[in-house]
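Support request from a user on the community tier.

User writes: "When I paste my structure tokens into the form, the page sometimes reloads and wipes my input. The last time it worked, I copied everything first. Here is what I submitted, just in case something in the input itself triggers the reload:"
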């Protein structure tokens, strides 16, 4: 997509516009769209394209309102890509604090790369008008709280219904950027030693965290900059997700099932804590299972990895498990700050379907668990339908399922909300099978 006579930064704006277009108009995720779009970019431009695409999708309703107010009629057909480009331009001016002249110029030039050079004047005019009218547009926006939440209406209604007191904080957390959390591999190092290695490498970290394996970075870095990353000393994993292995508490010699295991972060953490556990990691998604293999290889860990559909037990050899971790398929409403495209890809109707799949998996797995064994149910959702209500329904249907403490205060379920301890939204419930 290189083109002479375009300003630096035009390519990253064009890629960001295409990524936003593919999410909003074609239902592709950013993780699907960006790798193929930005593979030809220089690292710096690649980072800019990602920041622009993610940021634009975080603030999509507000940006749509402002851009819509400045164009005389909707851009349709082949011109629709220009609407995405205008959103990217508006994001830079309104939320990113970019140098205005450079942002506008690079965005205008991106129209050429998108083969819409004849519309450069339109792009320039809309963005210049946005600069002039921004105070007035922001006043109008302030009178539209639904738009200010920057969530689809069905989701903002659900969050407000479930968490009336915390809803505003959840919206704010979801629209922010998630911090980068590291998980220390305690087979090789400890937190104090690794903090010193980070300091020596000029990487600033926060020294306090709720888990002894956890370190939060002040600013995200490329994993290749992390000391001994390739040697398996450290992995990237959110603080909320790091609690899974601690709560499962695998013991030496036990048979452990990690269900819906890809990409393998929790599988690895289980084995880092207890290398003598016998772990079977299963997932229905074959391509994502490759990432489990890759993670285990880098960390020098061994587990049996198998493609399997967990809604049935056709994959099971009849040997009972001591502990099961079920990281259930879910709405991912707790990790929106990491994946802002979730807001625009997820549908209201998906929730009931996901609840049904979770129920199928729970019912299929329960007979594979030993009497006296433990099943840890986890989701990265904040919706009660997938969490509290799901577990209550399961307990009512299974008289041998006993809820046991997950939280330090003895509570039997643990709902993390986005931003709690600077972590993602996450849910845990621990069920013991009556002997």
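"...and here is what came back when it finally went through:"
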């Amino acid at each position: 997509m290189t083109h002479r006579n375009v300003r630096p930064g035009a390519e990253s704006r064009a890629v960001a516009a295409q990524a936003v277009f593919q999410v909003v108009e074609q239902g592709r995720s950013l993780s699907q769209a960006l790798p193929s779009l930005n593979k030809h970019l220089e690292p710096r431009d690649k980072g800019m394209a990602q920041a622009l695409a993610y940021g634009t999708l975080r603030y999509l309703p507000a940006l749509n309102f402002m851009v819509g107010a400045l164009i005389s009629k909707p851009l349709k057909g082949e011109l629709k890509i220009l609407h995405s480009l205008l959103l990217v331009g508006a994001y830079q001016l309104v939320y990113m604090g970019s140098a205005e002249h450079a942002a506008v110029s690079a965005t205008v030039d991106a129209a050429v790369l998108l083969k819409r050079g004849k519309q450069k004047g339109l792009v320039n005019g809309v963005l210049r008008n946005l600069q002039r009218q921004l105070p007035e547009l922001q006043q109008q926006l302030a009178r539209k709280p639904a738009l200010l939440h920057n969530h689809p209406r069905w989701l903002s209604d659900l969050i407000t219904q479930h968490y009336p007191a915390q809803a505003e904080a959840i919206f704010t957390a979801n629209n922010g950027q998630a911090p980068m959390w590291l998980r220390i591999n305690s087979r090789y190092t400890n937190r104090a030693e690794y903090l010193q290695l980070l300091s020596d490498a000029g990487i600033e970290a926060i020294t306090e965290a709720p888990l002894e394996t956890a370190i939060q970075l002040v600013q995200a870095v490329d994993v290749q900059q992390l000391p001994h990353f390739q040697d398996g000393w450290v992995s990237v994993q959110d603080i909320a997700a790091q609690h899974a292995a601690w709560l499962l508490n695998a013991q030496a010699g036990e048979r452990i099932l990690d269900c819906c295991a890809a990409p393998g972060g929790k599988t690895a953490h289980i084995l880092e804590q207890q290398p003598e556990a016998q772990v079977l990691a299963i997932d229905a998604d074959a391509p994502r299972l490759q990432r489990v293999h890759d993670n285990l290889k880098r960390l020098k860990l061994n587990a049996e990895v198998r493609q399997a559909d967990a809604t049935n037990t056709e994959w099971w050899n009849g040997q009972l498990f001591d502990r099961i971790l079920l990281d259930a398929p879910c709405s991912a409403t707790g990790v929106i700050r990491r994946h802002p495209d979730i807001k625009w890809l997820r549908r209201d109707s998906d929730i009931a379907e996901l609840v049904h799949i979770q129920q199928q998996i729970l019912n299929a797995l329960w007979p594979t668990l030993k009497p006296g064994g433990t099943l840890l149910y986890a989701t990265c959702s904040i919706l009660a339908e997938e969490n509290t209500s799901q577990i209550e329904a399961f307990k009512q249907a299974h008289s041998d399922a006993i809820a046991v403490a997950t939280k330090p205060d003895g509570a039997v379920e643990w709902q993390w909300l986005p931003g709690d301890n600077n972590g993602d939204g996450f849910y845990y419930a621990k069920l013991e099978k009556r002997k």
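Agent notes: The reload is a front-end session timeout and is unrelated to the input. Residues 120-142 form the longest helix (23 residues). The mean pLDDT is 95. Escalated to web team.
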